[in-house]
Structures are given as C-alpha cells and as structure tokens.
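User: Fold this one for me? It's DegT/DnrJ/EryC1/StrS aminotransferase family protein.
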Amino acid sequence: MDFLPFTRPSIDEDTIAAVGEVLRSGWITTGPKSRELEAALSAYVGGRPVRVVTSATAALEMALHIAGVQPGDEVITCPLSWVATANVILTVGATPVFVDADPVTRNIDLDKVEAAITPKTRAIIPVDLAGLPVDRDRLYDIAGRHSLRVIEDAAQSMGANWNGRAIGSFGDLVSFSFHANKNMTSGEGGCLVLNNDDEARLFEKLRLQGVTRFADGTMDVDVLGGKANMTDIAAAIGLGQLKKLDGFNVRRRELARLYFEHFDASLGCELPQADFEQSNWHMFQPLLPLANMTLSRAEFIDAMKADGIGVGVHYPAMHLFTLFRAMGFKEGDFPHAEDIGRRTVTLPLFPAMQDADVQRVCQAVSRVLRPALK
Ligand SMILES: *Cc1c(COP(=O)(O)O)cnc(C)c1O
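Assistant: Here's what I get for DegT/DnrJ/EryC1/StrS aminotransferase family protein.
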C-alpha cells in the first residue's frame, strides 16, 4: 500500500493552469492576482480589509507593530503552538508571557489569562490549535475589560467559525497562514485581516520597505518597512485553494467523525474535543497513554511509519526550547501544555483521504499500541 502522509495539499489542474498563466503573463511578483486574492479573502471574511504577505509569521509580526506593541511590553500567549507565535513577540522586542493550555480544548486557558495581565500587558495572541476556535466571547470580554489588543493567530483555523460567525469576520487583527500544510495554501504565504483602511495602509507600508507611492509618480518612506509582499504566482495558488476551502473543510469534518467512529477507545488515548460545528479539523491529534506504554512516542511514530503511515508532532511546549529556557522558563511552568506536548501525535487528515484510509490508520494504531500497553 502507498505511504499515507499525515497531510498533503490538494492542488487541482485549474490552479496549476492559473500558475502557468501568471508565469507566461510577464508579471510574476505582486500584481493583479495578489489584489484579486485580497478581494476574495475580504469577501470571505464579510468585507473586512485583508492584505496578503509571504507568511503568517510576517503577518503576526506586522500585526504587533500595528497594535502598538513596543519593546518592554508584554504579550500573552500559549506555549502550546508553533514557535512562530512567540518568536514574533521577541522579534518586536516585547516579552512573551505564557499562559497554560486548557487540557480539554488544548487552547489557552482563559480562566488563567487575567492573572497574567500586568500594567505592561499590551496584547493577547490566542491560537486556535488544530482549528478549534478559542472562545471568542470570553476572549474579547477579557481583552475589552483590560483594554488589550488581540492578534488572533488563526493560522490553523481558516474556515472555522465561532457560533456560526467565520473566524476573521469579527474581532481585532486576525492572521491566517497559507503554508503548504494548512487548510488552504499558496505554497507559502499568509494574510492579515485588519480593522480599517488606515491599518491596511500601514500594513502595506510595513510589508514593502515603508514605501508610499503617489499618483504623480513620486514616493516617500515614513516608516521602516520590511520585505514580505506576496508573488502573483503564490496568489494564483491561493485563489484556486480559496474556492475549494469550504469543500475541503466539509471533507475534513467527515474524516474527523470517522476517526471518532473507528478509533479504539480501549487503547486509552485521549481524543481531541469532538466539535463538528466550529472546528475546521486542521489536524486530528490523539494523546498517547505514555505512562501506560512500553514504547516511547518516537518508537510509536517509527512503528507507524514502518506500517506505511506518517505521524507528526504538533507541538512540543515551546517554553522548554533552549531559547525560552534561557529566559527563565522551565519544566513544570505549564503542566498541561507540557503533558499535551509530550503525548500528542498528528495522524493523517487531509481532504483527499478516502474513508478507508481512516480505518487503515486506526487499525495500525491498534496494531502498534495494543501489544505495547502495560
Ligand atoms: C503555521 C503556523 C504559523 C506560521 O505560519 P507561516 O505561514 O508558516 O509563517 C503560526 N502559528 C501557527 C499556530 C501555525 O500553525
């Protein structure tokens, strides 16, 4: 049987043809396709301004600037995320303040956020891990009461919703990623949903050297900008993907439901929250019963690979990385994030999977895990 990776993008022939058209057009950097993608994304999030860039990391970093986060400010986030979430806080000279994950949702524990707020706190970066949205009502209630900006790291939750409202269609600044593994891709890329045209103008400057061009052909630079503009090649991929996004997510939800049907509950794995309304099922991640196993997680992953099935790890708790330990973070600081980070495995889930693939994965998990239970 073919190797089943934990994820794989679905790129259709129309998208491949659209990329060919861009390459033949004579204009391959930022141009009409990027503007078309911005308009389509804006329509997707109910008309709010959207600007595209080369990565969600760039979008998050520029969002911190737009939110006025300065060196010395504190920004609250969760250590159970891709390390980009906290790296951008360091990049702008601010201090990451971690709050542990909730063991059920695996997202930031909103019960613990207020205790982490100090006079220096400027913003919160919530992360919708695996596409399961953080409770937006409680989040914005806390942010509002403490006058904090919110920069939603919605890298994984494109197409998810909170109580029926699309993520990105409300709230403060919202960042999505179009990395190859996300629910829609542009190869690499990302975007930021902004509150108004002034913020969008500032974002345009930040993403391209701070430049403003005037109608008379002159230009000026009044802020320090970087270089993060998207190519039309990437935008053409993004446009093809956005058309398919809702269909992809319907299929992901179906596959996630199948996992819950076929996964052997007696193995003692902890399954993710069974949300088939709001989550976009970016990933399906059981937690291994490590204390009850004779295999390590690495050995489990190797055994699954030997069975033809790719398994990922998203993510180890980031405060235990050397960079963050050097800032004083240590084992025991965030026990839920650490526990989840040690036990989590990402099983295959992507739109092109067949129903039978889910059964095949569940059978392999049983075959590997059953004899390894103490
Ligand atoms: C993928 C991801 C990012 C970064 O996105 P890039 O486009 O790769 O920069 C940030 N945060 C989370 C939670 C992600 O999953």
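One thing worth pointing out: DSSP finds twelve helices and eleven strands in the chain.
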